[in-house]
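Pair request: fold both.
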Amino acid sequence: MNRIIFASFLLISLISASTIARDRESVVGHLLSPGPMIESHKNFADNCLKCHGSGEGIANDKCLACHKNIKADVIRKQGFHGKAADTSCTECHKDHKGRSFDSTAFNIQNFDHNSTGYTLDGKHVEVKCFQCHTKTREKRGVRPQDPVYFGLSTSCVACHKKQDVHAFKDEWAKKDCNQCHVTSSWTKDIHFSHSQETHFELLGQHSHLNCAECHVTYKKNLNCAQCHGGKVFDPKIVIPHRTSKYKFAELDEKGCVSCHADYHAGQLPQKCEQCHGLDSWKLKNFDHDKSSSFKLVGKHASVTCGECHKPMANKTVTFAKTQMPLVRYKPIGSQCLNCHTDYHSGQLPQKCDQCHGLDSWKLKNFDHDKSSSFKLIGKHATTACSQCHLPIANKTVTFAKTQMPVVLYKPIGAQCLSCHADYHAGQLPQKCDQCHGLDSWKLKNFDHDKSSSFKLNGKHASVACGECHKPMVNKTVTFAKTQMPVVQYKPMGSNCVDCHKDPHKPSLGTTCTKCHNEKTWRSNQEFHKNFTLSGVHYNLECTECHINNRLLSGMSNVCIACHNKDDIHGGTLPNCGDCHRQEFWEVAKFKHSLSRFPLRGIHRTLDCSSCHQRSIYQGTPSRCVDCHLRDATGVSAHPVPLPAFQSCNQCHNQFTFH
């Protein structure tokens, strides 16, 4: 029977081939077809076998041969058609209903979207069909303005590509949004584990951040008003300007600086975690001794970072939305003067550790004897540095935030007068060590005999310096912080009268040594040679004889010249030495027995003045009556009448008058 029908259909097709083309379907339609085909199948009207097979009905394979996109869903068993793979296509899609028939029409209101394999939940429930199915049937013959429902992917990006703030690449581009987000809210209930899904675990402050704080969603420095003027709009819907990326590759490469500005501006390696922690930006893990070539020892260990690492001039960096000066970290030298002001202003080598320690700025390692050409001996060893190293006039330096005078260290001469005032005011050679020692300012090495033209002999050797070297009038010098008179050292004469007052009123000249010597002021062998001093004269002071400005030279050696008032002889005996001696005046060398009147008996006991009245010695009579006439005349009964007998010695003697 089937063969007869097929032969008839073939015969009719051959007959109709000769008819007008516009009448073909009508002929076939009238003869064999149940009705005209739909608009999209009209080209198959003369080829029944395109859809129909030799058996009954229309096999799904015939439909899927043309509708390859649906075939793909069927094979994968996804989408609406994949879920209904066991259902014949013709159960839903009819043909031969005329050109205007819509074989894909369905009841939108009653359509169960779950049957597509994509459940509408969350915000999707509120969305209108055309908001997702935006393509129209413009190329279709029927309902060209209606949406196309078939072929829309279930991937979020298929609809929300323009809203995709991630712009993932590589393996992340293959992931769909619903792996992290839910349809009820785009920003809430995010099922994303940063620790598991990425190599970057969110710890510390990172765990409190919003995604957008790291993954920026807008162009930076975008001035909306430049294009949009003063319009009020929500910048979140300006989708075309969302150009940021989730910088996974860059994070791997750059680390922290992928999100954070490099606060150090490339001075340090970009391994922030070596120094900073995640809970706070403050230093946490940084060990200056291990991480740098400069170990923090002594006072350096307690110094704040900012005291060494100063802001650079005219250089800033924007960090944490704040513009701040860029701090210098490298290069910073390890020499002291890289941070500290040169307190010595270039006078000393820039090797501070040779003298100073790290625990205190006070001298620690400095050895003046080894480090300088001037050894500290004697009193110098106990002298404070500042007593020699004085401030330079009108020169200051700012050190430890304090302005202070620059102290002189070099050049300082090794001569005494480089530090000490010239106590002698230029009178002596500037070789103080020839006279003074280092343990005391007192004379130590000075030898007056060798160092001067005046040798100290005799009493001069025990005389104090100050007895000869007197202060100058109206001339002073400041020495050892004390103002004192300048003492005369040079010029000084070597004559006695240059120091000693001449009691002789230079009548004897200036050569005192003719009479005096230095051992004692007494005369020498040539002294008083014209009048030898002996006895009492030897013990007398010169002034006892040389009084009233009497000259020493040219004085008489006659006793009466000095002893005129003492002359009891009234000048009758001018040559005192004939009778008297210098040793004892009372013991005269005059012998009365050798005179014409020897003293015998009672006469030997009498004082000279008893006989020599009125100091008359020469011409004194020697007769008894010349002295004893009164005695003789006073006798009342003299046996011999007087003056008959004037030779008393005829009767009397000097031993007894009777």
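--- second member of the pair ---
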Amino acid sequence: MPKTRLISPGSIPNHKLLKNLQLQDNYLSNDGGDEGIRIDNDGKVGVGDINPIGTLSVAGTLALTSEGITPTQPQDGKGYIYTKAGGGLYWRSYDLTELSLSGGAADGLTAVQPADTFYIGTTSIAHNRGSGALTLAGITLTTPDIGTPSAGTLTNCTFPTLNQSTTGTAAIATTVTLTDNESTDEANPLWFSAGAAGSGNIAPEADGDLYYNPSSGILGTKGLKLSYNGSNYADITVADDGEIEIANTASGVTGDITLDSAADIRLEAAQGDVFMYGASQATSSFFFQLAGNPTMTVNSSGDASDEFLLAVNANGQTDFITRESGGGSTAHLDIDIDGAIILDSHTGEFIAKKAGTEFSVANSSFAGMILGYATVGIDAAPDAYTLTTSFAVTDSGHNVSFIAPPSGVVEIFVSVYCDFNRRTVELGLSDNSSYNTIDVTHEHQVTLPPSSAGDRQINHRWVITGLTAGTSYRYYLGAKSSHALANVFRWGGDSTGEYAPFIMKATALPTAVGSYAVYG
């Protein structure tokens, strides 16, 4: 190819081109060879490159042979590439004070900007060069150029602590999924920190699904553990049949479960049963503590006005109340116990009322209770005792045992057949099988000799006062006759025409009150 040279005469320092220089696909070359600068029809410049692909394309090494300093800020849309001491390569633009293009193990790709802010698109990102933290402050970060991959997984990545402080609204059109490795290591959950330690962190570690739908208010998971620390926590577990269990574990013994409602607390069981169990059914206790004078009400499913009430009043006074709708009188209280019914009054007072009025002697509804009962001679051979002129116990079996009632007053009754022989009979009570009178005032004459011999059944009663409530007593029958060998007590029989059994019993009497129970 022919070569064209521009030669300057020795005395003429410069040449001027009065119009554009047309290279016609040729090079600008020092020796006229096919090397140097090539300019295509689009104005793209190639240095050693016959087909430049950019405004400037260099085939080979681009050398910056002078280290400089950070240039001044250029006009918007312009910038510099330069080197500095240490051999680093940098970029300076209108928006970036300095961007290191060389990187390195220590700091990688870094940027320093006015006010420590740089941009992705129009989104500002605050950067702390000292701590290395990258903070999104009150902004929406969008990446429209990245696009939405149809599928893919980011694996084998190690992330340092990522801190984000943000306000405003974030709109997400698709599901965002963070996947835990679901290992058995409960100490490595997905951790969402609210800021300073202990200020409300969230750390779900799910061995199954965990989701929350704010529209329906549904929190979905097999089990939820609410932990104060490793030793104090609560578990909420949902079984596949919908059964829910709430349990707590505490390092001490005060790990209560408290339901604190500003209004009512309702337990509604579709099948009708509500069960409460302690750790041991044999030793469990249940407490209901309500303000004021609380009432527990159980209503009939057929009529809410048919009800049973358990009311606790001042000083622990407790009332069991039944009510029938319409004010009827058939709201009975039935007590059907598969065992004993025990009434234990620590004051010894028992009260029976009708519509609020006590009809028994005050505090003495126990009166009339048979405290002890003894018989001798039922379906047995007849037996007899001949009275002497001194008091003696008539038979070792002629006694009754009892515990004194709250009133300390009892009635002792004796029934025995006597074969009289016109002689006086006296009866007494002994506190020993060898006659020892409980009091001479209880030694009574019970019959006068008839005009002729005759037999009769003696039925006699004593009223004994001053007994100590709750104390056990045993009384024996003692008797004597005004003449020896005159009168005979007889009892028992195992065939017709013989004698009734000997009977002795103790019955509780009411407490002495006014004119209703007088012992004088």
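Observation on the second member. DSSP finds no helices and 33 strands in the chain.
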